[in-house]
């Protein structure tokens, strides 16, 4: 059974919606765009497609191998489509979570978070090294179970298309849908660097996985997300955006003194260092929670008062 | 289905078209550091413990460079955003830069995410002084 490549089909709609959002941004000022940032994001998207053509065979070969050794012959029956949708979304959740928690995978995924803007063009800021970084391994269990390649790829593509429209500040909250679906509000939290919002909302389509696994954080009205990464890039050059974290890994590995340091630099959390001198999202969040606790204990009215300068839109994110 | 080459050309054309429209719509904001205080605040927000011994804002406001006892700080404007990173002093290559009419110091942190920056001075004398302050080696 042949299923459509929904990402390719959706590309013209992506372009039209970005233009519509830019016009909305111009008219209302509620969404931020910057020409250089947008161009960089879109070029990363084009590069992602080109890289997919060049390296996609790695993931397809792995999927085919897994499917060759499948446990069941599921085929294209209706219930398999339903089950595959849920399992693919669950696999996406873990892929995404591990991509934030382990540096090897973060080296690819950081690209998507490297813009200090949050608009529809940010959705297209995608990695060039996903296949080389073996990010496809998270879907392999589905092929081992026996879901056909076309079906899994179809739902992967559908998930990517779904996630496009949630990269916007133009949409507020969506009522009861917020309970089940990943929405713009949930995903703004995911892209934020505010300590309160770190390591949260990894969902693809369904936010239920975050609620189940304890990583759900809601967007607070009094704390506007500050987008980017903990230590933002100082470049819009697509090549630098694509490879900066890999280059830093190589540099760190060159200075490693023990096998444990090699493992830490490769598979520890982003920001891991042997002496703990660098900041990880966990340490930033812990420091924030400690500050909050201290302020609350002292009877402070605004537990977040000390964050005000850091979260002014004009201020940089923490290095 | 389109051949990959044509798909690429169409995609790049779309990028150019969207970026051009963004420019026409006026999304051209470029961040600039207005003062030493601007740069100092940016560094202190990023690294609250920084004890700055010296700080220079580039004459064009595009970046700033600061020193404390063992770290060098770079504050760089990127589009309408700002980035602050710190490095061990000895790990950063600082050189005197003079290519008329620009004079100042070139700072290369050896970081793919932060390209070398030019921290400019207003004139040659100020540039030489800046180079001494930040221990720049001659080119």
Fold and architecture overview:
The complex is a heterodimer of chains A (319) and B (139). In chain A, helix 1 (6-28) runs parallel beside helix 7, helix 3 packs across helix 7 (149-165) and helix 4 (103-113) packs antiparallel against helix 11. Chain A has helices at residues 6-28, 35-68, 78-101, 103-113, 120-123, 140-145, 149-165, 177-180, 184-191, 208-213, 238-254, 259-267, 281-297. Helices cover 56% and strands 0% of the residues of chain A. With 319 residues, chain A is mostly helical. Chain A is globular, with a radius of gyration of 20 Å. Chain B is an alpha+beta fold and 139 residues long. The longest helix of chain B is centred in the first third of the chain and has 21 residues, at 4-24. Chains A and B meet through helix 1, helix 2 and helix 11 of A and helix 1, helix 2, strand 3 and strand 4 of B.
What is the terminal separation of chain B in angstroms? 54 Å
Instruction: Give the termini separation of chain A.
Output: 50 Å
Total strands of chain A: the figure is 0
Please work out how many helical segments of chain A DSSP would assign: 13
**Main sheet attributes: strand count, strand direction, barrel closure of chain A:** none
Q: Which series of helices and strands of chain A comes N to C?
A: HHHHHHHHHHHHH
Helix and strand pattern of chain B:
HHEEEEEEEH
The largest sheet of chain B is: 4 strands, antiparallel
Radius of gyration of chain A in whole Å, from Cα? 20 Å
Helix content of chain A: 55-70%
Q: In one word, what is the shape of chain B?
A: elongated
In short:
The complex is a heterodimer of chains A (319) and B (139). Chain A is mainly α.
Topology:
The complex is a heterodimer of chains A (319) and B (139).
Chain A: H1 6-28, H2 35-68, H3 78-101, H4 103-113, H5 120-123, H6 140-145, H7 149-165, H8 177-180, H9 184-191, H10 208-213, H11 238-254, H12 259-267, H13 281-297
Helix pairs in contact in A: 1-7, 3-4, 3-7, 4-11
Chain B: H1 4-24, H2 36-46, E1 54-57, E2 63-67, E3 71-78, E4 81-88, E5 93-99, E6 102-108, E7 117-120, H3 124-133
């Amino acid at each position: 059974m042949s299923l459509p490549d929904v990402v390719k089909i959706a590309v013209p709609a992506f372009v039209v919606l970005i233009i519509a959002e830019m016009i909305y941004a111009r008219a209302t000022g509620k969404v931020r765009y910057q020409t250089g940032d947008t161009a960089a994001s879109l070029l990363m998207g084009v590069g992602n497609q080109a890289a997919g053509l060049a390296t996609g065979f790695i993931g397809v070969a792995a999927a085919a191998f897994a499917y060759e050794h499948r446990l069941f012959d599921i085929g294209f029956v209706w219930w398999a489509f339903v089950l595959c949708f849920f399992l693919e979304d669950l696999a996406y959740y873990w892929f995404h979570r591990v991509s934030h928690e382990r540096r090897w995978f973060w080296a690819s995924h950081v690209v998507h978070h490297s813009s200090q803007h949050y608009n529809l063009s940010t959705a297209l800021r995608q990695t060039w090294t996903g296949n080389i970084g073996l990010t496809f391994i998270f879907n392999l269990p589905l092929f081992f179970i026996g879901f056909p390649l076309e079906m899994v790829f179809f739902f992967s593509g559908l998930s990517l298309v779904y996630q496009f429209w949630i990269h916007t500040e133009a949409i507020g909250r969506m009522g009861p849908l917020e309970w089940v679906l990943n929405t713009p509000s949930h995903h703004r939290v995911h892209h934020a660097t505010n300590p309160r919002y770190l390591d949260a909302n990894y969902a693809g389509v369904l936010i239920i996985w975050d609620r189940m696994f304890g990583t759900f954080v809601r967007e607070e009205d009094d704390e506007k997300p500050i987008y980017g990464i903990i230590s933002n890039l100082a470049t819009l050059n697509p090549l630098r955006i694509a490879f900066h974290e890999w280059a830093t890994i190589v540099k760190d590995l060159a200075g490693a003194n023990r096998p444990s340091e090699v493992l830490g630099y490769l598979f520890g959390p982003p920001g891991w260092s042997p002496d703990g001198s660098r900041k990880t999202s966990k340490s930033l969040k812990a420091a924030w929670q400690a500050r909050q606790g201290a302020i609350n204990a002292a009877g402070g009215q605004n537990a977040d008062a000390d964050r005000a300068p850091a979260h002014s839109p004009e201020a940089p994110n923490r290095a | 289905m389109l051949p990959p080459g044509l798909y690429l050309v169409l995609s790049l054309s779309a990028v150019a078209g969207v970026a051009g429209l963004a420019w026409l719509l006026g999304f051209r904001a470029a961040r600039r550091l207005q003062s030493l205080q601007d740069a100092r605040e940016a560094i202190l927000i990023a690294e609250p413990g920084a004890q700055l011994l010296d700080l220079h804002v580039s004459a064009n406001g595009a970046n700033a460079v600061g020193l404390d006892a063992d770290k060098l700080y770079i504050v760089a404007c990127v589009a309408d955003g700002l980035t602050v990173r710190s490095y061990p002093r000895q790990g950063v290559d600082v050189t005197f830069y003079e290519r008329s009419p620009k004079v100042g110091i070139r700072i290369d942190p050896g970081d793919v995410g932060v390209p070398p920056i030019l921290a400019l001075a207003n004139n040659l004398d100020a540039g030489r002084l800046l180079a001494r302050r930040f221990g720049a080696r001659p080119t």
